[in-house]
Amino acid sequence: MLQKLKTRYQRWRVSRHPIPDRLWSAALRAAPYTRGLDKRARDKLRELATLFLLDKRFTTAHDLELTDDMRVVVAVKACIPVLELGLDYYDNFKGIVLYPGDFRVQERHVDEAGVVHEEARELCGQSLGQGPIVLSWDTLRNERAQDGQDLVIHECAHKLDILNGDADGFPPLHSGSTASWVRAFQYAYDALCREVDAGRDTRIDPYASADAAEFFAVASETFFTRPDILFDDFPEVYRQLAGFYRQDPYPLMRQA
Ligand SMILES: [Zn+2]
């Protein structure tokens, strides 16, 4: 009963604030991997993106002018990973901060000897614990999905990863054996690290070799934007992600 009321309320909210057709079409062009979605999935994506726009708070830094085009592009990309999971999976953040370009952060870590290190780093995206998702608009605008890149999906994957604790590449799985997830990801991660250490080119972004959390985020990016690459190179990881996201983008891509 409660769920029915909630669904009805959400439909009412969506109908009161529809995404204009022009903005919707532009956002789909910015996310070409949506081409394979059927009408049911596209309608659902539009509904979720509308609710995302209503629920999340967008701000900008350094005088970047926030436009509706920017908001809709981010919303559509962000809703791809939760298309079959639901927006509740994003309850752990409220804010989206857009910077015009890369931004500098001061990072602090303590090494094994207890020595504190501080370093400034230039980032194009960041997901802060319970805080906002921070994005470089310049990166977002210029990235190419055909190269397996999608900054919004990447940062959203980090948010899903921390739903059950630390960023460790291990999001809350639905059911079944977690052992097969660990096996698939450990095998793929080790294989990628070997390639990177040997100086060989890899088809998925070598940044995935940074740690288990980055591997999960990059694998998620590749899963949605270039599922063919992930399917060919790491079929077990593809299978695990298809189970977690409840989506199977590779056959959809072949039909598009
Ligand atoms: Zn990352």
Give your account of this protein's structure.
The chain has 256 residues and is of the alpha/beta class. It contains 11 helices and 6 strands. The protein has helices at residues 2-16, 21-30, 39-55, 68-79, 137-142, 151-161, 178-197, 212-225, 227-233, 235-245, 249-255, and strands spanning 57-60, 95-99, 103-110, 116-123, 125-127, 133-136. The strands form 2 sheets. A 4-stranded mixed sheet has the order 1-2-6-5. Strands 3-4 form a two-stranded antiparallel sheet. A hairpin with a 5-residue loop joins strand 3 and strand 4. Helix 2 (21-30) packs across helix 4, helix 3 crosses helix 4 (68-79) and helix 9 (227-233) crosses helix 10 (235-245). It is globular. It starts with a helix and ends with a helix. The relative contact order is 0.11. The mean pLDDT is 92. Bound molecules: zinc ion. Zinc ion (ZN) binds at residues 154, 158, 214, 217.
The poorly predicted ranges are none
Query: Over the alpha carbons, how many angstroms does the gyration radius reach?
Result: 18 Å
Helical percent range?
A: 40-55%
What is the average per-residue confidence, as pLDDT, rounded to a whole number? 92
Roughly what fraction of the amino acids lie in strands? 5-15%
Strand order of the largest sheet: 1-2-6-5
Which structural class matches the secondary elements? alpha/beta
Which small compounds were modeled alongside the protein? zinc ion
Number of strands: 6
Q: If helices are DSSP runs of H or I spanning 4 or more residues, what is the number of helices?
A: 11
How can the largest sheet be summarized?
A: 4 strands, mixed
Order of helices and strands: HHHEHEEEEEHHHHHHH
* Morphology call: globular
Distance between the termini: 38 Å
